[in-house]
Design a protein that fits this description.
The complex is a heterodimer of chains A (120) and B (237). By secondary structure, chain A is mostly helical. Chain A has four helices and no strands. The longest helix of chain A is centred in the N-terminal third of the chain and has 30 residues, at 11-40. The termini of chain A are far apart. The model of chain A is unreliable at 1-8 (pLDDT under 50). Chain B is α+β, with helices and mostly antiparallel strands and 237 residues long. In chain B, 30% of the residues lie in helices and 15% in strands. Chain B contains nine helices and seven strands, in the order ββαβββββαααααααα. Chain B has helices spanning 35-45, 107-115, 136-140, 153-156, 159-163, 170-180, 188-192, 209-213, 220-236, and strands at 2-10, 21-29, 65-68, 71-74, 87-91, 98-100, 103-104. In chain B, the strands form two sheets. Chain B has a five-stranded mixed beta sheet with strand order 2-1-5-3-4. A two-stranded antiparallel sheet of chain B has the order 6-7. In chain B, a hairpin with a 2-residue loop joins β3 and β4 (71-74). At the A-B interface, α1 and α3 of A face α9 of B.
């Protein structure tokens, strides 16, 4: 085979981005845990969480978490599939399913976050 | 001395109907015998049809790499009695096409190796009557990189290679980094360009099997990590 034919696969930047997003996800998770169990304290109730989630800052944070977690997880899945699926049509099919999941979850997740309100 | 049983995987291309099968031999193994000594003894005294590769008997040529009791190793560097096993199972290196008995085709190794241009690229003529010099610090960087004997144990143990037979392989990555890290090499890009490929560096998932399998105790995974950094740096400009 010609090893040069797919030289511009772009794997380098995606690999690097996967590392960056991994660190970001770990940081956001830590912020969530600390905020919920250390800073707020007391009983964890729907009202307490909803009040926080309804603020613009937490909405932004949660939407970024949603998009980056989806990218990180689904790209990771794609890399695993890529190892074992070598047939062209099968790769297109799997890639399309992953892309569709990404689009649907991003739209519904973002809509849920944007429209979420608490206490009228 | 101890009487050991050798269970050897056999395959004869002229008798493909029989396929792969295990054949057992018994041998009185003296102290100090390597697995290669045992195989030689079996071949010379019991069964001349048994095929395996060997050359240097000193852990330098890499010819006698095989899977011994499930672990890739050089037969000439494996003491038979030290395995502490009454039955020693010997198989050809996994993942490669078997040519005959313990002899495998190393074509995938050569293909991956050639892709990374495994030689020093330096267009500047060397100084007259002198080698190309490098500082002791620059030479130090090549420790653990140049010693690879290309036995194929690492790539044979790599799940990414099992899944993709066109995967360039940890042996070639280690060799590529040996030249990328060499201060005398003038064209790192030439060694790197084949790596950013769907059969290249990004198929490595840091499983460390190559490190465990290397009979020379080298660390291809570390070389792969360094190469990934080099590629990302190159992309960032």
């Amino acid at each position: 085979m010609n090893y040069r034919e797919t030289m511009t696969s772009g794997g380098a930047l995606l690999w690097f981005f996967q590392r960056i997003t991994g660190v970001y996800l770990a940081a956001i998770l830590l912020i969530h845990v600390i905020n919920l169990h250390v800073l707020i304290g007391g009983e964890v109730t729907f009202a307490a969480i909803a009040e926080r989630v309804a603020t613009p800052m937490w909405k932004t944070l949660n939407i970024s978490f949603l998009i980056i977690a989806l990218f990180h997880g689904l790209y990771g899945m794609w890399v695993v599939f890529e190892d074992y699926i070598h047939k062209g049509w099968m790769r297109v099919l799997v890639y399309s399913v992953i892309a569709a999941i990404a689009v649907v979850f991003t739209i519904f997740g973002t809509l849920t976050m944007i429209t979420f309100q608490h206490g009228g | 001395m101890a009487m050991l049983k050798f269970k050897i995987n056999r395959f004869n291309p002229d008798d493909e109907r029989r396929g792969h099968y295990a054949q057992e031999y018994e041998l009185d193994v003296p102290k100090g015998y390597t697995v290669l000594d045992c195989l030689n003894d079996i071949k010379w005294k019991q069964d001349g049809t048994l095929s395996f590769r060997r050359s240097c008997r000193s852990g330098i040529c890499g010819s006698c790499a095989m899977t011994i009791n499930g672990v890739n190793n050089l037969a000439c560097e494996t003491q038979a009695l030290a395995l502490k096993s009454a039955v020693i199972t010997i198989e050809p290196l996994r993942g490669y096409p078997v040519v005959k008995d313990l002899v495998v085709s190393l074509d995938p190794i050569v293909r991956g190796l050639m892709a990374v241009k495994p030689y020093m690229i330096n267009k500047t003529p060397p100084p007259t009557d002198q080698e190309r010099l490098q500082s002791p610090e620059d030479r130090e960087r090549l420790e653990g990189l140049y010693e690879c004997i290309l036995c194929g144990s690492c790539t044979s143990a790599c799940p990414s290679f099992w899944a993709d037979k066109e995967y360039i392989g940890p042996h070639a990555f280690l060799k590529a980094y040996r030249f990328v890290a060499d201060s005398r090499d003038e064209d790192a890009r030439a060694h790197l360009e084949a790596l950013d490929d769907k059969h290249g560096l990004w198929r490595c998932h840091t499983i460390f099997n190559c490190v465990e399998a290397c009979p020379k105790d080298l660390n291809p995974t570390r070389a792969i990590a360094e190469l990934k950094k080099e590629l990302v740096k190159g992309k960032m400009g």
